[in-house]
GTPase Era (Mitsuokella jalaludinii), 894 residues
Amino acid sequence: MDLKTLIEDGEKVVNASPVHPHPEIVTKSLEHLETLKKKCSKDLHVVLMGEVKSGKSTLLNALAGEVVSPVGITETTAAIINVCYGKKKLAGIRYKNGSFKTGSIESILSELNANKGNSEYFKNCQEVCIWIPEESLREMSVVDTPGLNTLTEFNDKLATEYIQEADVVVWLANGRYPGKLSNMETAEKIHDMGKRMVAVISHVDDFDEKTVTVCIEHLKRNCDGLFEMIFPFAGEMARQAIEEQDSEKIEECGLNKIRDTILRKFSDNSAELQTESILDSLNAVIEKNQEYHLKVLREYEKNLSILKRTKEKLSQRSLEIEQKFQNDFQDWVNLKLLKDKTDQFKRKIDKVSFSLLDGADESLNRKLRPEWNRVFSQQSVNEELSQFISESEAKLFDRWSNALQQVKDAYDAKIAYDGLDIRVTNQLATRSPSSDFDLGPAKAGTILGGILSTGISIYASGLGPYASQITFAGALGSFALPAIGIGTLIGIAKSKKDFNNKKRELKSYIQSVRHDICRQALSENQTRFEEAVHDTCEKIQQGILREYMHHLFKMEDENLIQNMHDEIVVHQKNLQSFIAETPSYQDVTNEVRGEIEQIKKEIQAAAEEEIEKIREESFEHVSDEEIIRRYEAIKRDLEDRLIKTLTDKQVQEDARKVLEGEMHNIEIKFNEMRKKWANERAEKEQMQAKAHELYTDNQELKKLAAELKNQIGDLDLSQGILYTTHEMGDLIKNLYKDAEEYIYMSYPWYKENVISKDLESLETSIRNGVKIYVCYGIMPRKGSNRRFYQSDIDSTINTYTCIQHWKYSFNKIDKTAVKFKPVHSHCKIILCEKYAFLGSQNIMSYRPSKGDSDMRDEITMKYTNPRIIERLRNFILNQKECPDIDRIGKGELR
């Protein structure tokens, strides 16, 4: 497949990200891919990187074969210098506005020096180009960048663009400052871009060979495979050698080795290297997008889980609130409807005196009837119903606020249990356009706090709209004063006793009327009221969920949220498929490459065949001249076959380079054979002396073996008892019971479903005075991108959470009785003062019963020998503490 087409396919995959607006990683990736497309047709591109005074300019001059960049010019001028092949010496300045100024190399460099410190001038400079007729630059260009600590925002961006286009990055580190050799943050970023890198340790002029070796080894330990090769470089000697054109000094300072290696390893294979570099960069871009979208997907699924739990909790609270309101209406009607008004009416009747009633039938009738009509009217009943609706609405909002507070407190408790120092404040949860997917329980509590402080009423209009439906529609005309007037009733009463009896009858009648009105009001409105509460609860619940969905997903429709999740899953799979299907270098180069590779194999086979013939003959009968003659014969034969096989001149040139490299290797082998015969006799003499030494050593080894056998016998390992996987559950419980002084354990992983079964037994042991010492953890593994595997991070987080659970429970009993220690260890040991268990089974994360379908075969040995128990106990105590385990468990280190 054509490289450019492959990159364009990569652009389509990256641009298809469903996350909108596109995050920075997507836009940056598209820019990088555009740069890679431009690079497809360019020669080998070498970029020099390093801090100030790291020797970049000196190395550039060596690669160019002359002084084209005075030492320190890039630092003092903050310029980027690009040196490439030209038929004659020439230099130029490319400005940011697109204009270009040319001149001699001396005049251009003089202009740069004249503008030292002029930030405005260099802010407009894109790059400085220098062309020289140096053969080694025919197929490559070299870029010198300013020191890392002098980069401005503008030329930092330019340097990054050159790095993105680079096939090889040469990293220079000043050997005079060993501490800086491990400052690899920028180098790691370049490596993560998929760039091939070599390192040069400069300024080693005054170092002896041992010091140089120490520097190289120090860099190897700290670079973690960033560099393919590391070279020492005597910078001051190199500068003098270039000025004096001293070939011996050039060889001694290390410049030839660096230059020849770059030209041989990279320039001679520029097509292959360039293709591999582009493919590596392409894969790095897609992998970064995959990592980002995988993180987004995980956060999305975590938020979906939070939404589901919140929805369930709100639904449960809504049902509880509705149940509380079921009896509210009936209780209010029976106990309060018209209660105050009828009681007041009764008191008014009680105040009517016996003397005043005599002969005043019509007058008193007129006085009591208005009160009757006022109390027992539709308006009176509906006013109280309306008041009840208002009070119920306030009560409904209050109950929802309390319910929401309970849900929020549950999230806050979850945060506290996880050991996170997060405080949720009651501030309005504002809607932000940012794409923040990293939420979780903390943000869930924050959203609830915002809803609580805003007021539940904004999510529903309350019971007000239902007030017109909850009314009394009964015919109150049937509840009139008795047909016989009050005055008539009283007039018949011939005594005060009869008078009071009549008043009691009247009050009883009032009570009966109120009862009938309440019964009718209840019959008409009980169901309406419950439906109004239910509808309002539904609206409140939906309003809160919409707010939740907006904050978690920037959407308010569950279908759209699920569609977005599905699109992210598909996009993640497309990125993964693209990476898996990206072809190798051999897949994208032309068909002739296969023919060249075949010739390369034939060269190797022919050389090996000829070398084997020579080996079969006596070295005494094969002269140096004969060896050289055979070497030249192989070379001529292969060159003739090359010309006949490949007709295209350019292909012949590419193949000839391959041939020269292979013939150089064959020549080395022939020279080695010439030296071998001279060394063979000396080696035989050395072997005789060595045989005597080996005999003596062998006698000593026999003595040591006997001593070792005795030591192994002392361990008395035969006393160990073997147990299988399913037997360990009961044995661990017995250990907790048998321990009287102490329990020591060390396991890499702990799981909640396993250790929760041990909690009660361990708490009992602590109460009985047993001391407990717990070691836990193992550092996650790193992948090829030098990041921790996510599965290992998840295991460490789970282990940390379990340990916090234990710590919280045990500290409530006796803080001094328990000690926890994070370590980097794969050991699986548990012991008390009476016996110890040691084996392959991680009892704290895997403890099946016999017959479980997922049971795997593992073994554990039980030892009762006191010396073995003490040695295992000391081993657990002496394990080195590893604080990074807790940092990963807290989410501080990834």
Summary: Residues 649-715 form the longest helix (67 residues).
